[in-house]
Amino acid sequence: MKTNYITSLDDIVQLNHAQRNALANVTEHFDFRATDYYLSLIDWSDPNDPIRRLIIPSVEELDGTGQMDPSNEHAYTIMPGLEHKYHSTALLLVCDICAGICRYCFRKRLFLNPRQETLQDIAGAMDYIRSHPEITNVLLTGGDPLILSAGRLDKILYSLRDIEHVQIIRIGTRMAVFNPFRILNDPELLNVLAKHSTPEKRIYIMNHFSHPRELTAPAIHAIDQMLQSGIVLTNQCPLIRGVNDNPDTLAELWRKLSFIGAVPYYLFQCRPALGNSAYTVPIEEGYAIVEQARSKVSGLAKRARYVMSHATGKIEIIGLTEGEIFFRYHRAADDADSGRILVFKRNPDARWLDDYSNPILDYPAEKPAGLQEAD
Prior knowledge:
- This protein is an alpha/beta fold.
- It has one domain: TIM Barrel.
- Helices cover 29% and strands 21% of the residues.
- The protein is built from 13 helices and 16 strands.
- The strands form two sheets. A 14-stranded mixed β-sheet has the order 3-4-5-6-7-8-9-10-11-12-13-14-15-16. The chain has a two-stranded antiparallel sheet with strand order 1-2.
- The chain is globular and about 55 Å long.
């Protein structure tokens, strides 16, 4: 099956003239891109259809709130397209195109200034990684790396595999969601991935299924083909208002992912990027949804951690009491903070760590003797 890319709302016949006019201002600010395959999954008779919400622009995006770089990725940027935030992990922004643009995208800046954000000097990036033996993991992202030609992807993977201390290569992608035929109809792509996923140094595909209805027969077939190619598969997605902010929906998603071999990994708190306010769920409400969903699944489906990618690190939301909320640094930009626990007074409106006032308790990772009151 040939998949077509749609970049204008004028090409979506299911939207009437008034609807397209109402959204024109949104697409002037934030790019739109989709595939005809993905648009075919929408129930156009339902204005609240979750697939529609994931891909079709909304006037809610123009509320003016949010930041262009909510996780302060620029603070960890070594050169355009190379970030080194965590001690053992480097991140490469290898392209500036996705098969579809999620409305809650936290890297909207990428589509505005691609040459300032994506990797231009591959040789320079490889030299940096080669000179830092502590880097054992490299994450390829963007944009979507699987939109690259098999040949170009092969060159990047070959360069990384030439660096002895790089053990794991992760590829963040939504291709199996937006265009599974990119995987199914290009045997060379699977051959490239299989070649570089060795018994001692695996490639991990970090899929991004956000709703059970995205797990179509072609998508599941694409997952199966990648598994048969020796690739390890996981899934990560954000908690999105109007899409998966329901325990039954989230449990169904996790359950099906565990069945097909794309085990749940992270559930992200939606980042407060520009235009994302309407897609976010308050943290404490999100925690309740996550715990209810966990109660409905077993085994591997419970593996997803509820985290936020904060400027200071990946922070897991680990508990609530009647008056307090507990966070733990799952991975910190400063290694000394990994494992650190912070306790705050509850704030039901908080959508990001910065919405809480000073912690009432601070349990430093390097002092496990007991909880200490914060200054």
